[in-house]
Amino acid sequence: MRTNRGFLMVVMCAGVGISAGCGGGTSTSRSSGPGSPPPPGQNVQAISVNAGPNGNYANGAFTSVTVCVPGTTQCQTIDGVLVDTGSSGLRILSSALTESLPEQKGPNGNPVAECLQFLAALTWGPVETADVQIAGESASSVPVQVLSDTAFPLPAQCKNTGLPTQDTLQTLGANGILGIGVFPQDCGGGCTLPGPSNPGLYYECPSSGCVVTTESVSAQVPNPVGLFASDNNGVLIELPAVSGAQPSLSGSLIFGIGTQSNNALGHAAVYTTNSSADFTTTFMGQAYTQSFIDSGSNAVFFLDSNTTGIAACTKATGFYCPSSTENLSATVTGANSASATINFSVGNAESLFSNPGDFVFGDLAGPSSGRFDWGLPFFFGRNVFTAIDGATTPAGSGPYWAF
Prior knowledge:
Blueprint: E1 12-13, E2 18-19, E3 44-50, E4 60-68, E5 75-84, E6 88-93, E7 112-117, E8 122-134, E9 137-147, H1 156-159, H2 169-172, E10 176-180, E11 202-204, E12 211-212, E13 234-239, E14 249-255, E15 270-272, E16 279-283, E17 286-293, E18 300-303, H3 305-308, E19 326-333, E20 339-346, H4 349-352, E21 365-366, E22 368-374, E23 382-387, E24 392-393, E25 396-397, E26 400-402
Parallel strand pairs: 5-10, 6-9, 17-22, 18-21
Antiparallel strand pairs: 1-2, 3-4, 3-14, 4-5, 4-8, 6-10, 7-8, 7-11, 8-9, 11-12, 13-14, 13-23, 15-26, 16-17, 16-19, 18-22, 19-20, 23-26, 24-25
C-alpha cells in the first residue's frame, strides 16, 4: 500500500475564525518563472491559492476539472478542486457532481467503493468512470472516486483505521482532489493480491455490505496525467513568491516534463526518491528519511515541539506559534545524492489567521512527528516538477522531484 499525504494535513482551527487546512538539469532554460505570466500552451491550467469553495481554506491551491460521461458530450466543469502532489487520483465530492457517471463493478458484478487512507483522515465512496479534461489535455474512461459518506455504509475495516472521513465540503474544504503525485495509481500491486496481503483499499458492495476485494492495476483510481496522450510523464507547478500574508495567489499547473518548450527542466536540479516516494531532510544535525514535497499540505509540517523547541498553537491546533518568526534552514538530499539547502520561516499561525481576508501564508508550519512534509509554502517562488514513477523524462525515469 502506498502512503498518501496531501490535503489531509488540513486542520480545523476552532476559535481562530478559519478552517486552516485550519543543481543541474538537462534541458534548455525556461522562458518563464515564478511570478511570470503563465506560459501559453494547451498543457497549461490556471491554479489559484485562495479561500476555496467553502470560503475558509488556508494555503489551498485550487483548479477546475471537467468530467464527462464516457464517450458523450454530457460534461460538467467542477471548480474548487485541490491540486495535490501528495496523492494519486481524481476524487470528487458527490455533492459537487451533477452528471451521473457509470459505476465500476467488481468480480461479482457489484459496485466497487474505495477507502483511501491519508496521514490523518480518509476518503470513502464509490469508484465511477469518467472522461477527464484539464486544459487541453484529456483522458478517456478514467476511474475516479466519488466521495460520499452515504452511498454505501462505511465497512468495519475502514472504520477500524480510527481516521475520520473527509467526504463533505465542510470537512474537505474543496469540491475534490486532483492527485497528481509520483505514483501512476493510488495502490499498485498490493491491491491485486487476495487474502491478508491485500491492504484493503477497494471494496465490492453487494446489498449485504461492502467487503474487501482485489482490484487490478488498470481498474484502480489513477493519476490522470499518466493517461494523457502526451505531456504525461509528470507536472510542473509554478507559483510566485509571497511576502507576508495575502488574500490570493495565481499560478500555473503545467503538464509534462521536457515535452514542450514551456515545461523544460532548465537549471532545475533533480532529487530522486526511494520506493516510498521519500527523500532525506537533515535538520539540526539529524537526518529524517521520511521527507517529501506535497502541494496538498497547506504548511511545512515537521517534527514536534520537543524536537524543534518551537511552541505549538493552543487555538490553531496543529500549527506552530512561536513568539516571533523563526528563520530556519534544512538540507534535502535525493536518493541520487543531489542536495540543496532550503531556507524557510515559521510564523505564528494564530497571528497569521487574525486577518479574516488573508488565505495565503508563506511561513505557515506545524508539527508532524518524525517527518518533513514540504507543503505548499515550499512551492512559493519555485518551479517544482513532479515526475511519475516509471515515466521517461529528459532527466531519466521518475519518480523524482526537481526544482
